[in-house]
Write a structure and sequence with these properties.
The chain is built from nine helices and no strands. It is an all-alpha fold. The protein has one domain (about 5-175). The radius of gyration is 16 Å and the shape is globular.
């Protein structure tokens, strides 16, 4: 599959579109909003998409070529979607570039914070970052279950090849199936 990926631009575009669709589906999973307390708002949905894109990008950066090209195509597709969403929300042509710059800064800032916590294996730091960014919870006290979900998703993705990422089927664990660090239901 990988060799054929670059033979035709249309095939490449279709594979990345499929990955993007699977990320969007995961970001819309009802369990994120009902069980893990992600706010069901425009901002909450933006955070859910960013979180899932970040997790996929994290894995793509760990894989050999052509995964880096896939990552770039994915981020281009995601930001094109953000651009279209801003326009649908009524942001004018003059305001879109300024908003897109802020969205990119938000995305990459969050990615940096999440990476540091995941790389260190620091669930508390991850919960604080997720609490602040996703839940609006300054100390991260309510974000433990969301941190457990991110840790489980990262572990699942760590076993995925590029073919797995570009294939079919779920990339992320269902939020309802993730056990919390305490073993209790959130």
């Amino acid at each position: 599959m990988i060799l054929g990926f670059f033979r035709r631009a249309e095939s490449r575009k279709r594979l990345v579109a499929g990955l993007h669709l699977r990320i969007d589906r995961a970001a819309r999973a009802p369990g994120l909003y009902q069980r893990l307390q992600v706010p069901d708002t425009v901002e909450g949905r933006f955070e859910a998409v960013c979180l899932h894109v970040y997790l996929a990008m994290r894995r793509l950066k760990q894989l050999p070529p052509p995964a880096e090209d896939v990552a770039q195509d994915l981020i281009n597709a995601v930001f094109a979607q953000f651009d279209a969403s801003l326009r649908e929300l009524g942001v004018g042509d003059v305001g879109v570039p300024k908003r897109m710059k802020k969205l990119a800064q938000a995305f990459y800032g969050r990615a940096s914070g999440y990476d540091a916590a995941l790389d260190a294996g620091d669930r508390t730091a991850l919960a604080v970052a997720l609490g602040r960014n996703v839940l609006g919870d300054v100390d991260g006290g309510q974000a433990g279950p969301l941190a457990d979900y991110v840790i489980a998703a990262d572990a699942r993705l760590a076993r995925a090849s590029l073919d797995d990422l570009l294939g079919e089927g779920p990339l992320f664990p269902p939020p309802e199936d993730v056990k919390t660090a305490t073993g209790a239901e959130p």
